[in-house]
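Slide 14.
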Amino acid sequence: MPWLQVEPTVSIQAGGYEAIISPSAGARLFQLTYNHNNRQIDCVVPFNLIASIDAHQWPKAGAFVMLPFTNRLDPAEFEWQGRQIALHNGSNSRQGLHGFGHRSDWTVVAKSEDNVVLAWNHPISSPEWPWTFQAKLVYSVSALGLSVALSVRNTDISSMPVSLGWHPFVPLQTSDAPGNSMLSFSASRMHDIGLDGLGIAHLSETTLTQRVFTMDVKAASTTAFENFSGNVEIFLEKNLRLKLMSQHAPHLLVHRPKELPFICVEPVGSLPGALKHYTKAQKDRELSLYPGEWRHLGCSLGVEAIV
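Slide 15: predicted structure.
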């Protein structure tokens, strides 16, 4: 089973925030902390100090980018422009899970006190992905929190499907105080895709009106939301909340596992199962990336006081 080396890590800090990233472990965010009134707040579940992680059974902590596709693909097969694609990723489950950028070794190309730029190339067709592309990832911190900017460019001679996403593990409070462990955001439609994340979420043919969803995340569930507004408020405690914002992510996936103290709140470029269940027109609109074109995803995460 392949393992990803954690060291060396890089640290960036500004405005009371510190982020620790492991380029060789899929450019993962290992920690994001905020110093609030001399108290350290974990904005993501922190990784324990370990030498390496299993590429297919990673600890449920930190955050990682998803590319070139998002969420589960079971089995890892789909049809693209009349071509049958079967992916091999080395997993015994035969599932494709969140692409493979998070299982790859990224290169640091620039670094400052509050910013790090990473790059990763997939230069040849392979059983893992039969198209070529290059990716760029920028982490930066400021007084507003962490910003994540992911970009992918198609370097192949034909169009390929691309869906980008960000997958943070957000810690939940154990307190039963009213208002704790709540999410609030706007979207147009909810899809229950089952705890295993393998249910079908059919994309609407027309754009529906957005409404506010407020979720108590104490109950285990996996749900996808389409036509997502790009802003999520995650209430941590009486006077504090996390604010997650995204650009170029039309959908949101929320996963609350059973009996584990975290929730995954994932801005994504397509609904789960898109490679299998989208119509041709929907694939062309949300997934197709033509030679030479770029696709982008921007996310940010920070702590806000509730006044």
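Speaker note: The chain has two helices and 27 strands.
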